[in-house]
Amino acid sequence: MCSPLSLVALGLVLLAVPGLAGTRPQEVRINKCCRLGEFYNVTDRQCVAGGIAKWVPRIFLPAKGQLYKDLGSAPPFMKFAEQQQPDTCPRPNVYAVDLVTLMGNGSLFLNQKHVLVPVPDYCIDEKVALVCPERPTDLAGAGTDGDGNGGQMDSLQAPEKTSVVLRCCGSNFAYDRGNRTCSKLPRGHELFDSRIVNSPYVELSYGFPACKEHAIAGAFEESRLQEQTGSVTIDSGKIFASGEFCLEHVRDDDRTVYVFTCSEHFQPASVPIAKQDSRLVLYSAGLLISAIFLAATLATGLLVPSQHHVLHWRCQTHYVACLLVGDLLLAITQLSGNSITGPACTTIGK
Known about the structure:
Elements: H1 4-16, H2 18-21, E1 28-31, E2 38-41, E3 46-49, E4 59-61, E5 66-67, E6 78-81, E7 93-96, E8 100-103, E9 108-110, E10 115-117, E11 122-124, E12 128-131, E13 163-167, E14 173-176, E15 181-184, E16 202-206, E17 214-219, E18 232-233, E19 239-240, E20 245-249, E21 257-262, H3 278-302, H4 311-336, H5 343-347
Parallel strand pairs: 1-6, 4-8, 13-16, 13-20
Antiparallel strand pairs: 2-3, 4-5, 7-12, 8-9, 9-10, 11-12, 14-15, 17-21, 18-19, 20-21
Helix pairs in contact: 3-4
InterPro entries: GPCR_Mth-like
Protein name: Methuselah
Signal peptide: 1-21
């Protein structure tokens, strides 16, 4: 049986050796945009009553390498300061809570941008997070202010981001055609640290467009990117709006940037058939011969007035007329090839 003195000694040893007793996590204070029992209304940009009790978004604990299991609640070492919106920018950006992850050290991870935001630059709430834009470093001063001290460019001097463009895989990743997925680039690879878009007015986020299957629509040229809207035009002239496409390098390819989009948004061009192909001639001739006999059948029926009142004659007449029009349009399509464009192409159903 242990004496009281030995228990005290054991306690002192456990306190002195962190590996035995374990260290108590340091308290982390998080800014909550509104008071408890309230939530942030994005439309009115203000707090309104009606918040739920278990409002905390998902939390990742780096020390354990896993998400906090009690979803909606926070670990005991996390404390929330109510009604504390960021004051480091005049108008913070709004992110849905499913696009952010709260880290155990108090920083906020933006899932689509792969950026960690410090505590003073954001607040979190039941449905949204208010995040101040990243303050770009002063390139002219090599990351220093005018006095040579470490600092950041004033937000009023930085170019305002006017549009958002998706990068498919993320920084230092490229698309692997063979595995149909993103793969990490080793340091020293020619595409390592490569830029996708050079415009200072375009903000990059990460991820593919939301769809089941993706396809490469063509090569990307920055001159065809609309900085104001984030839309892009490919070689065929088709325009993809921001969010309908993403940009990425392809591994083991040249430094070309490609436009990825949903398969339903992009239909590859049909394989052209040479006009002198014998199949084209035979198919068109067969359709024309069929149209001639259909016209003769229709004319014969019209020359027999005694049958005009019979129901099956009327059905047959309409059926033959539809076949005649269809064969004529198919013959015209085959003979014209790609020469029909515009409204005429749409009219005949090419």
